[in-house]
Amino acid sequence: MIPQEFIEEVLERTDIVEIIEPRVTLKKSGQNYTGLCPFHDEKSPSFSVSQDKQFYYCFGCQASGSALKFLMEFDRMDFVSSIEHLAQRVGLEVPRDQKSDPGASQKRKSIYEVLDQSTSFFREQLKSHESRARAVDYLKGRGLSGEIARDFGVGYAPPGWDNLMSKLAISNADRQLLIDSGMLTEQVEEGKTYDRFRDRIMFPIRDLRGRTIAFGGRVLDDDAKPKYLNSPETDVFHKGRELYGLFEARKRVRKLNKLIVVEGYMDVVALAQHGVGYSVATLGTATSTDHIERMFRIVPQIVFCFDGDNAGRNAAWKALLSTLPAMEDGCSAKFLFVPDGDDPDSLIRREGQEKFEARIGKAQGLTNFFFQTLGSDLDLESVEGRAALSKLSVPLIAQVSEGVFKQLMIQELSRRTGVDSEKLLGITGLDRSSPTRERPPPVNQRQRQLKQSGLGEHATRILLRQPDVANLLDDGGLAKLDGVAEWQLLVELVRWIQQAKDTSPMLLLSHYQDGPYFDYLRGLAEQDPMLSQDQLADEFLDTLRKMVRENESEQKQRVIDDLTQKPLSELSPVERDLLTNHRRSKPQS
Ligand SMILES: [Zn+2]
């Protein structure tokens, strides 16, 4: 049995939009997201997802529920697997055979409440406390408007030991709750309790639903230490995963396509003030792979923006190391170093949005920064230097998952060491897990090669031969393909053809001639699908059906694989059933 409060905790940390978006194309409309309902065939969108309520609803077929229900219905996963899937995403382990503790979820609710009251308290102090002038001056000095302060919920913790405590801790139970939520510090030996945040600008840290889960406090006087003070870990705050400003970025920017990672909250707020509303900051921790995976689920590009000094470069290198395992085709990471003595806040205040964004556009690519850093102390003219470069880079490249990006890194290593890439693969064992190495694209060509499975490629090939087969697909059929990353190009092609009045293979290709996939598509167009003209349509639809089926069984297989790795005794009855059914059905499938 999985305790109810665990399920609640998982759902509280999950964002339903992150779950649904990869599976259904969603558009922001007002407070909600809408799209074509995946549960019934339709041509105009009546499927709606509410981020605030963490709930989906279809006006057409009345399908509705939470992220958990969606996974169960859409991926046809059972309850336990769905919970496991969600728990793993948010870094929690499903507890087994644990006694239920209904107090835990009640306590979390109370903590959210007390943090909400604290947010209001700090904002009130910024408006009315007698020593507010310094805080207001500080914010004005940074060029922040009242509007931006409001959007970010910025407040002020006045000087003194018990401002918050005397306001919110009426009973002993209140006081304990303030301690548990990190707002009070307790000196156990002396039996004293006092406000954790004193004489600081307060930035509420919000989860994706906009609830305050912690605070960051920044000193007014740059000499005071520590400059930034964060809430400690609590039942609702896990700093290794959270990103300051993510909630606000998603609110401000209609369609996020990149995120800038900066070092402090002030940077995030200042950038938003100057029109760059898509930056986030980690919370006093280095950027972790968790952070990066989280961002890549929302945007395809991350730009790390650090100081140009040694500390900044070290932080950037650490961020790069955390990024490698999260890199997938279609994702990119870049590095921007601000000039000495500047930070993003001062830089954008001086230069303005346009110049700052131009810098972002010219940021250094990950591969470039990677080899530049590794090679900085090596003499690459010498054999020893080049050998050392291989030795340093190979274990790191090995962390990248298979795909075009990894191939590019290997190619680049080959270019820099002068060792043939085929040979590099053999010597270094980089090819051990990559059975499919087909003609990686040359580095200097900015064309992207897609990782499409054989079936996807086959379907694309038919489409290029006879584009009007795309018109055989209705929205429902297309929706089934949508959401799988490697089929995006195919889906895009189908959509384009369906909208175009007149299509021919040449027209289709010419539409893509300036895009990143041109070489790939031209290559496919040149291959004969080995079918007669009248077989193409059937073959196309049949291939799509196979793709959908294959995808479903892959997802199921993943669940089964997870289960088979666990001892039978640890499986719940439902899981055991699933496994037995699977084994029983295997010989036929
Ligand atoms: Zn529906």
Task: Describe the SSE topology.
Blueprint: H1 4-13, H2 16-20, E1 27-29, E2 32-35, E3 47-50, E4 55-58, E5 64-65, H3 67-74, H4 79-89, H5 102-128, H6 132-141, H7 146-151, E6 155-157, H8 163-168, H9 172-180, E7 184-187, E8 192-195, E9 200-206, E10 212-219, E11 228-230, H10 246-252, E12 258-262, H11 265-273, E13 279-281, H12 289-298, E14 301-307, H13 310-323, E15 332-338, H14 344-361, E16 364-365, H15 366-375, H16 383-397, H17 404-417, H18 421-428, H19 454-465, H20 475-481, H21 488-499, H22 505-511, H23 518-526, H24 536-564, H25 573-585
Parallel strand pairs: 12-13, 12-14, 14-15
Antiparallel strand pairs: 1-2, 2-3, 3-4, 4-5, 6-9, 7-8, 9-10, 10-11, 15-16
The structure holds zinc ion (ZN).
Residues 37, 39-40, 47, 58, 60-61, 63 line the site of zinc ion.
How much of the sequence lies in strands comes to 5-15%
Bound molecules: zinc ion
The count of β-strands is 16
Question: Which CATH architecture of the largest domain would you pick?
Answer: Alpha-Beta Complex
Count of helix runs? 25
Overall average residue pLDDT = 84
Output the structural class: alpha+beta
- Kindly state the percentage of residues in helix: 40-55%
Largest sheet, strands/sense/barrel:
5 strands, antiparallel
